[in-house]
């Protein structure tokens, strides 16, 4: 998976970096670095994204607004 594919998936499915990080058990910074190509995307990630997509919003954490 390429960085642009991850970002495209995330935006298409309306996930924030923080939400995706939370569900995957990684930091927001890890997701950001994957999307920027700074850190290699784990090979299993496409499977996790397929699962998340198949569940719709059922697994998506609720967002909280920063103040």
Write up what this structure looks like.
With 67 residues, the chain is mainly alpha-helical. The chain has one domain (3-54): 434 Repressor (Amino-terminal Domain). The chain has helices at residues 3-12, 17-24, 28-36, 45-54. α2 packs across α3. The longest helix is centred in the first third of the chain and has 10 residues, at 3-12. It is globular and about 30 Å long. The relative contact order is 0.19. The mean pLDDT is 90.
Short characterization:
This protein is an all-alpha fold. It has one domain (3-54): 434 Repressor (Amino-terminal Domain) (Orthogonal Bundle), CATH 1.10.260.
- Taken as a percent bin, the fraction of beta residues is under 5%
Secondary-structure class:
mainly alpha
**What's the domain count?**
1
Task: Give the biggest sheet.
Answer: none
Helix content bin? 55-70%
> What ranges have pLDDT less than 50 throughout 5 or more consecutive residues?
none
- Count of individual beta strands: 0
Name of the CATH class:
Mainly Alpha
Task: Sum up the overall morphology in one term.
Answer: globular
| Distance from first to last alpha carbon | 34 Å
Secondary-structure element order, N to C: HHHH
CATH architectural label: Orthogonal Bundle
Mean pLDDT comes to 90
CATH topology: 434 Repressor (Amino-terminal Domain)
Number of helical stretches of at least 4 residues: 4
